[in-house]
Amino acid sequence: MEIYLIFFLFWFKNSIFDKKWTILKLEEILDLTGGSIDVFSDVLDTFLDYIDEFPLNVINCLEKIIKNQVGTNGYLLFETKYEPLLAGLLRSEDQEAKDKTRNLINFLGSRDLHYFRDLLN
Q: Could you tell me the CA-to-CA distances from 54 to 71, 77, 109 in Å, in that order?
């Protein structure tokens, strides 16, 4: 399954398909993998292309990825890639996405991972 996931993540970044359909498929994949992805892929950077149109889908994906990393490793890899995403989500007009983003940042704080607490000010 891992090889298929790698190809899917490459496809996600280069998809020629409808963006809504594409992000929904990524959410499904993350559900199947428990939020596990190849963090070296460009998936995190690609989320920047989706924040404005699909903030709720982006935070749903990030929540799965981050909670998997923290649960598996006890820390967050590549936290600098997450900061612009979380900051963008906090600026979103989608209140539910903003609330979920705040909750995710607070979740990290509850694990003594205070990478993003300054974003809440």
A: 26, 24, 25
